[in-house]
Amino acid sequence: MKVDKSLVRNVADHCGVVLLYHGLFDEVPSELGGEFHNTTPEFLFRQLEFLSQFFRFVSIDEFAAADDPRGLAAVTADDGYRGILDRGLKVFEALGIPAALFLNRAIFEGGVFWRDKVRAIITTDQVGDFEQKFKDKFVTQPNQSFYRYTKDPKNNSIEVVNAIDEFLSERGDVQNSSGYYLKSPQELVAHPLISYGSHSVNHYVMSSLSTDQQWREIEDNRRFLKQFENVQKSDIFSVPFGGDQDYNNLTCDMAIQSGHTGLLLSRNRLQKSKKSERQKISLSIERMMSRATDMQSLVTHLSETAERT
């Protein structure tokens, strides 16, 4: 199927794009579940090569500092899945495209990402048992799935994770998928195309936390990343989940107070020009997360995203 390049040219004339990735598996491991966001390394190369015809790829910090994002693009990856370096670095090198990886200290230090635990409970058909054990403990909306209400800001993420850990521990079923993540300083490649930024300590829903809890998530992870002196670092804070309800004014204020220059969101939008001097691009950076598996689907998603941005 022939790809309509005029659609992409039109998008580049009006917007900048920040791409968000998570896994780079040839095939997603079964324990990570069907909700896991993955792009194959082969398709990563194809889409970045294609988009580079229309956009100039820059680092996320350069993108954030730009007065006008039109025609610019940046690559970001959240959660510290090791495939971004093991498989993605060759792609970035081949195309000369910079990428920023946003890390969580708890996962980097050997923990298991709690959303992977959620997916494991789903894939092993244990949701009913969990809900029976913790009946009425968490707020749910009508027809809201386990996957969704466990990250609903009405439910404090720390309490949710404690419940999940208690449930899995009692069953002797503590998920050990730490092999999928970057987990030692030696794995943080010092490379001119790669930078590392903060994604909070535990990847909790920031707006579900108290003031003190938010500050610890932001400031402690900032301090953690400072110890790595031989790698490039991003000053941008990647908001966990990054949706409208996942952060609040406290999150913004604390991130800036901690020394960050902007916040990465994940609202499936593109970046348009700032409208005034008070609306700096760097304070709020939009990202697009595509699940496309072919080029035409990517182009369609890009065009539709531009229309609703």
* Helix content class: 25-40%
- Tell me the CATH architecture of the largest domain: Alpha-Beta Barrel
The CATH superfamily of the largest domain bears the name Glycoside hydrolase/deacetylase
CATH C-level label of the largest domain: Alpha Beta
Number of domains: 2
Q: Rg from C-alpha positions?
A: 19 Å
Helical element count? 13
CATH topology tier name of the largest domain: TIM Barrel
Name the beta content range: 5-15%
Could you say which overall geometry the principal axes of the C-alpha atoms support? globular
Q: Major sheet: size, sense and barrel closure? A: 8 strands, parallel
- Overall pLDDT score: 92
Description:
This protein has 2 domains: 5-110 and 181-308, TIM Barrel (Alpha-Beta Barrel); 114-170. The protein has helices at 5-14, 41-51, 60-65, 83-86, 88-95, 105-108, 114-123, 127-133, 146-149, 157-170, 211-226, 249-257, 295-308; strands spanning 17-21, 56-57, 72-78, 99-103, 194-198, 232-238, 262-264, 284-285. The longest helix is centred in the last third of the chain and has 16 residues, at 211-226. The chain has 13 helices and 8 strands. Strand 6 (232-238), helix 12 (249-257) and strand 7 form a beta-alpha-beta unit. With 309 residues, the chain is of the alpha/beta class.
